[in-house]
Amino acid sequence: MYGLNKSVKLDFLLGKQLIQVCIGSHQTILRFDGDTIITVEGLSRLAAKRGSEIEIHPNRPEEAGKLVCLLGRAIQGVVNTGNGDIELVFTSGESLKILDSNKNYESYQIESIGVEGVIV
Asked: Total structural domains in the chain?
């Protein structure tokens, strides 16, 4: 990716409930209600409400399995840092930082059917 512009609003993600985590060899797909999908192909970090943080590498599917703790949780906060990284804060207190970790390729894609112009 080349850095998600700070002006891109991600408020359409608020309230979306994670309903499925699909794990592949080199990517993780997070499927939310309302036909919203985040495909992660880069590094991410899952932070527990008590402060511990787990790094999730795109080519280690066993690490992506730790994301199932977010199933059924809704996004209550979203931050576009302006440097390409985004952070999703869930109702349970956990947060997921999706990093723009690969400067040559897209680290993640966000798709939401019904939200005009949204494929970032």
From this structure: 1
- Residue 3 backbone dihedrals phi, psi, to 5 degrees: 85, 115
Whether this prediction's pTM lies above 0.85 is answered by yes
2 in any annotated domain: no
The answer to the question of residue 106 being in a domain is yes
How is 62-88 classified by DSSP, letter by letter? HHHGGGGGGTT-BEEEEEE-SSS-EEE
Range of the domain at 33: 11-111
Write the CB contacts of 7 (distance below 8 Å, at least 6 apart in sequence). Answer: none
Q: What is the pLDDT along the chain (120 residues), one digit of tens a residue?
A: 467 888 889 999 999 999 999 999 999 999 999 899 999 999 999 998 777 899 999 889 999 999 999 999 999 999 999 889 999 999 999 999 999 998 788 899 999 887 655 554
